[in-house]
Amino acid sequence: MKNARRALLALSAASLLAVTACSGPAQQQSGGSNGGEQPAAPVAAKKYTDAELEAVLKSAKGADGKAFNVLPAADLKKSLEASKELLSKTKVSPAECGGQDITSGLQALDGATTAVGTSTGADGIPSQAVSLISGLDPSVLNSNVTKTKDRLEKCKTMTVEVAGQKAEATTEMLQVSAKTPGALAFETTTSLPGSSTKMKQVSVVAVKNGVAISSVSLAGGAGTADVEKAVSSLDAVADQIK
Question: In sequence order, what are the beta bridge partners of 129?
Fold first, then answer.
């Protein structure tokens, strides 16, 4: 059970990592108007190595106050490949909510550096994951946050079909008070086929100093508490990115 849930979180984090890479919110810039002067040339963001990103995760604490369990690089690579394989077999309706953007995001990760860490709940089962990506073109990372919001608005309700099994998913934007500028949060509820069980997933994404950050929480029905956990984990990791 623990390994299955850890794999689910890793897969979710990998897919969300791609979404962040493809359409993540722009980091807010400090300062106001420059009085009409030409804006300064953008400063190239540092590209962190895989080891440096892993160190960022290891130096942060999850919402439970415990260290993250960092996913080995080989396992993360398998998760990314699993995401590609899964998306190739997935049908989504409406069509504009399909996996093309995510697939493009996963392809954009080629050459980038990545890291994923998970944390466990009181029952010892993994319930949260935070992912990092560095090395992408800033113009890709700092895409228009309105575009992301519009996409989520259009895709409030979706039907996802994998291997003949259909599931209904709904997405709702969330208002959060994150310390990390530009953080965007949303909750996805999936009704599993042939079951009354519903899986809730809270996702928070942001960009800091050229590093895309995503925090995923498999919500346990605690409502606001689940959202606060996802935000807290994202902020904790963002604080370690200097």
Answer: 118, 216
